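Thread title: Can someone regenerate the structure for this chain?

I was given the following input by a collaborator and told the matching structure tokens would be attached. They weren't. Posting the sequence so someone can regenerate them.
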Amino acid sequence: MPVDFPEYAPVEYTAPVVANKPVWADDEDKIAEFKFNALDGDTNRVSFDGTYEIEKDTSRPINLHGRTGMRGRGLLGKFGPNHAADPVVSRWQRLANGEVARDEEGQPVLEIVFIKRKDTGEWALPGGMVEAGDTVSVTLKKEFGEEALNSLEADEVARETLKAVVDRIFQNGDEIYRGYVDDPRNTDNAWMETVAVNFHDKTGSAFGHFNLTAGDDAGSVAWVKVTPDMALYASHADFVREVYSRRSADYGSA
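Best answer:
Regenerated them for you:
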């Protein structure tokens, strides 16, 4: 429970698109019926970071990580944790002769698939929200296919081929993070949590002739060279640094 702070006067805000009760958002009129800190039907209201408390007067969850300056849900659909999944698809940049490229300091060059967000213009991982009834593993593959390969616009034959490619790459993933993320959408009563998983294409040839193609939610998509100072959306820079550290450590098996 946060320390008492009588002077604290957060803004109350829930975006109209959320307050209008779309199917993906909670209906606050029924908040007393929600089963917080539990699997509530198809909605997972369990936090990766432990048990969160509930405000007695509003029945709203209290952000485990402290005050944000905003009450309500802001742009988030669910009270409490809003679960996401972030696939970090990587490969070593290769020269024409097939050798791994190196930077000026002799370090191997890592590339990761990023999308450019339409709302902020920042590079971000091609992840998304875990929909009610879905698992993290399903969401990881679905979001990558939709955001980075534009699978929704492909014909049936191409879609099945893309699915097979994604299934093959996503067979063996390395979980790099699970928990709360520092996201600009977080409020005192609703917050983002994610599972980030690295899928490394060791040979750099898994996608074959398939081009990365941005889906509806992305402005563009590309294999981007990882640099120490690259600016990324929300906590994505932390995930990328962790992936680079792990991949560099086991470079001998790249």
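Residues 11-82 form one domain.
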